[in-house]
Design a protein that fits this description.
By secondary structure, the chain is α/β, with parallel strands linked by helices. The protein has a domain of 71 residues. 28% of the residues lie in helices and 20% in strands. It has 18 helices and 26 strands. The strands form 9 sheets. The protein has a 6-stranded parallel beta sheet with strand order 12-6-14-15-17-26, with helices on both faces. The chain has a 5-stranded mixed beta sheet with strand order 16-19-24-21-20. Strands 8-7-9 form a 3-stranded antiparallel beta sheet, with no helix packed on it. The relative contact order is 0.14.
Length: 558
């Protein structure tokens, strides 16, 4: 990366370095024309490096088979969409999904699609791979990572103290306040100036989102230590990193920051759309799938409750997205045909909802744990996974890094589930002479009056599917309908947010002691949150503020 050097009054010229693919520092300068014979002193200065490590959300990391090494979850873009993954999973039933997506049979796949041309401090494809970009989904994060790398590290004019980044235009409009929950402090000129004198090589750290997030936090810890070490080569000076997270990646980062010595190695964390206290939609998908939310996405995530349960029941990471003990204890509701509440508040969702076996409204239907052609999950394994989720929730409860910033979706137009409400309606009488089930019986699901659950809404109490041949002038046709004493309808979204994380969960960190600033934003959905211009501006604001807190690194002999 040649650079035209300005000649100073004392004939000193400064060559400023930039990080190479392996973390070492590279320096470049332009030689003077041969007729000039005056003595010029080239000064090579140490370079302060503050790497930015991006931590993706659930399903945002590429996974491969542990045994075969073949991709099982690859988010490469075809026409901007993960069409390859769609083709792979859209025909898979519950049993096939259970066998394919098991945390013990998968690991992070680092061979996902990455850019091929240079950007910022990245020279080409091998450097992107070295930075971990191949571990995360191109469709969800590729454009954001490129924007971040170019914004933070594209060279501009050189000045006498070092490299002037392209941060001048990017940081010129950080006036806020962007729905700030706390008194807003604009970026001071001194803070912006300090930010311009650092390099911010952008990394990504994927993780196996099927496994416990505590294990993913260990992987992030190892990545942080590795990145700091490689940027201490030669004249590179690095002691800390900065984390930027999306969704469940925020939970991973919070757990990592609590490990011995890690809080000091992380200057701060910028969270985006984090489900701080969980999301009821995770429960709902285990019951009725995703088909009535987003049919296209359901082909990948799961159309029915059986398809989602087959993966979630064996995946502690997925269970750690469920509402925590800090969420509203009335988030799960059952209402009779008159609108009366039948289910009291459940302050302990782990024992009273997730680990319950004999109630239709519990998290898992036991029969769905052993789908055809799958690998049956024993109930004690399910219970152990629920206990793991509870332990993880407890370990990070109300705990945040001392320098924390973040934003959440606070948009009434992005409908989200603040609650999951089952509404009972009187069904078409079975006509078999059986007495209508009492409401108490429906809540307890006695053997004589089973709830017929097919993993979609509505479900039915008693009765059966009736097939009739209906004659007509055009010939006979077949009509099917469900008879039942009651129909159980899983209601739709009842609040705002980002379509996945409800406002209450996204807003929760705003009151935490260590949170420096928390922003309520609108205009985006959960998965593409970092494609939004305001979300990006908030991210840059946090980077400036966090850089102001960064330790000035020192190396022996410099």
């Amino acid at each position: 990366m040649p650079e035209e050097l300005e000649k100073t009054a004392n004939s000193d010229r400064t060559a400023t370095g930039f990080p190479a693919a392996d973390g070492s520092m590279r320096f470049a300068w332009t030689l003077t024309p041969s007729p000039l014979t005056d003595l010029v002193k080239l000064v090579i200065q140490p370079v302060n490096v503050l790497p930015v490590i991006f931590v993706p959300g659930i399903m945002g990391s590429n996974l491969k088979s542990r045994k075969r090494g073949t991709p099982v979850w690859r988010l490469d873009a075809t026409l901007g969409q993960p069409l390859g993954l769609l083709r792979k999973l859209s025909t898979k039933d519950a049993g096939e999904r259970q066998s394919l997506l098991h945390p013990d049979e998968t690991l992070v796949d680092d061979d996902g699609a990455v850019p091929t041309s240079a950007a910022g401090s990245i020279a080409g494809k091998s450097c992107y791979k070295a930075r971990g970009w191949g571990e995360v989904g191109e469709t969800s994060y590729g454009a954001f990572l490129l924007w971040l790398e170019r914004t933070l590290n594209d060279p501009g004019k050189r000045h006498d103290r070092g490299w002037m980044h392209a941060l001048r235009p990017a940081f010129s409009d950080l006036s806020g306040p962007w729905g700030a929950h706390r008194p807003f402090a604009p970026c001071l000129p001194a803070e912006v100036e300090k930010a311009r004198n650092w390099f911010y090589p952008v990394y990504a750290c994927g993780y196996n989102w099927l496994g416990d997030n505590a294990l993913s936090a260990q992987r992030l810890k190892a990545r942080i230590e590795h990145v700091i070490e490689i940027h201490r080569q030669g004249l590179g000076r690095c002691e800390q990193v900065m984390l930027v997270t999306h969704s469940m990646g925020g939970l991973v980062a919070r757990a990592c920051a609590q490990m011995d010595g890690m809080a000091e190695k992380i200057v701060g964390i910028m969270h985006g759309v984090m489900p701080a206290t969980g999301a009821p939609v995770a429960y709902r998908r285990c019951k009725v799938g995703m088909r009535d939310e987003d049919y296209g996405a359901s082909l990948v995530i799961g159309r029915t409750g059986q398809e989602v349960t087959s993966v979630f029941a064996q995946a502690p990471g997925a269970l750690e997205l469920l509402p925590t003990q800090k969420y509203n204890s009335s988030w799960l509701q059952v209402k009779d045909p008159s609108g009366n509440d039948l289910l009291p508040p459940q302050p302990d969702p782990y024992e009273r909802i997730y680990a319950v076996k004999d109630r239709w409204w519990a998290l898992f239907k036991e029969e769905w744990l052993s789908p055809r052609e799958g690998v049956p999950i024993r109930w004690k394994i399910v219970k152990a996974n629920i206990d793991t989720a509870k332990q993880f929730h407890t370990s990070i409860c109300d705990r945040y890094h001392s320098q924390t910033y973040g934003f959440y979706g606070a948009d009434s137009k992005q409908k989200s589930f603040e609650h999951v409400v089952w509404r009972m309606k009187v069904g078409i009488a079975p006509g078999d002479g059986t007495a209508k089930a009492a409401l108490a019986d429906v809540m307890c699901m006695p053997p004589r009056q089973q709830v017929r659950m097919d993993g979609v809404s509505p479900e039915f109490v008693g009765g059966q599917r009736v097939t009739q041949i209906v004659p007509s002038a055009m010939g006979a046709s077949v009509m099917q309908y469900e008879t039942s004493h009651y129909e159980l309808h899983a209601s739709g979204q009842d609040g705002g947010g980002d379509g996945t994380v409800p406002i209450s969960s996204g807003r929760a960190p705003a009151a935490a002691a260590n949170v420096r600033q928390w922003f309520a934003l609108k205009g985006f959905a959960h998965e593409p949150a970092y494609k939004d211009d305001t979300a990006r501006a908030v991210t840059l604001y946090a980077i400036v503020k966090l850089t102001a807190q960064a330790k000035e690194p020192h190396r022996a002999g410099l």
